[in-house]
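Usage

Read records sequentially. Each one opens with the input sequence:
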Amino acid sequence: MRLHTRVQGSGFPMLCLHGHPGSGQSMAVFTDALSNQLKTIAPDLRGYGRSQTRQPFEMAAHLEDLVELLDTHGVDQCWVLGWSLGGILAMEMALQYPERVRGLILVATAAHPRGNHPPVTWLDNLNTGIASLLNRAVPGHPWVIKTFGQRSLYRYLIQQHTPYAYRQLATAALPAYLQTSRQATQALYGALRAGYNRLPQVRALTMPCLMLCGDSDRHITSEASVETAETLPRCDLRRYPQVAHLFPWEIPDQVLADIQSWLKQNPPHDLQSSRRR
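and closes with the structure output:
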């Protein structure tokens, strides 16, 4: 299907893939800065954001959509940056279409994802609902953060409860959550129930990779991310203390500095290879 897509900047392309729930808009923490040096392409994946469908689908459909998206934009090769589910799709693209992927930037993800999230209580859900509504009304207000945010399920998504992180929760995360379809959720959970594990396969990936993970991630543990980084043949690892699954919203400046530094160390061999001749 044709995906709703945010395209920014010019230069060598970078495909930016969001997580679950998510949207292309939730990748703005990366694209707003990286589009100063690259052409960033941030789609709403099938069943997310403004790329809605009523038809059931499997995870493989995301890859078909993304290849069509690259073809539509005349991109032969690109960087692929993926956050959480987006990182899993990035690795799948590299496995199935290695000639299209210059390198991978993997954020809070793993080839064999595992979590250690505690059980969710009714009080967790109540506090999360109240925190989300109040934070949407007054994004990043200190009273909302202290009174409800730190007692809600947000405490497992972030460790540093900053006003910036809560503004992102209000403007990007909540709308993305409300726009995530039942079909998208079923596709993801179907893959996880099947016991998703691509560790043996990613050993074959030879392109440069960067893995970023947070020590306090409860959704995809840092141990799972490190395991993937150690399995990939050419992977640099950045492991951040005292942050969780949404750490790009907790420490955005440090994350972007690390990505930009890594990109300088791994320039594309041929900028012209990104465009179809």
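Summary fields computed downstream for this record:
- Residues 11 and 37 are 7 Å apart (CA to CA).
- The longest strand covers residues 101-107.
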